Amino acid sequence: MQPRMVLWYYVVQHCALTRHVWITVQLRYLRVVYNIVHYNVIAVPEYSFIPVTTKFQQW
Q: Which of 13, 16, 37, 58 to pair with 44, CA 20 to 30 A apart?
């Protein structure tokens, strides 16, 4: 392989990896927000704080 091709390959791999990590972080953040909204809005308000605390202890 030519050096330029190798360099290009590593750049593409790095960009793909960075994008994958960024998407994973965003998905995890969205899931936390969804859990909080779900337990505070949809669930019974009196018992909403119990599932949220157990969720964060599991994390």
A: 58
Domain boundaries, given as residue ranges, for the chain: 3-58
3-state DSSP of the chain: CCHHHHHHHHHHHHHHHHHHHHHHHHHHHHHHHHHHHHHHHHCCHHHCHHHHHHHHHHC
Give pLDDT tens digits for 24-59: 889 899 888 888 877 776 655 555 455 555 555 555
| Amino acid at residue number 2 | Q
Query: Whole-angstrom Cα distance, residue 25 to residue 18?
Result: 11
15 token code pair? 């960009």
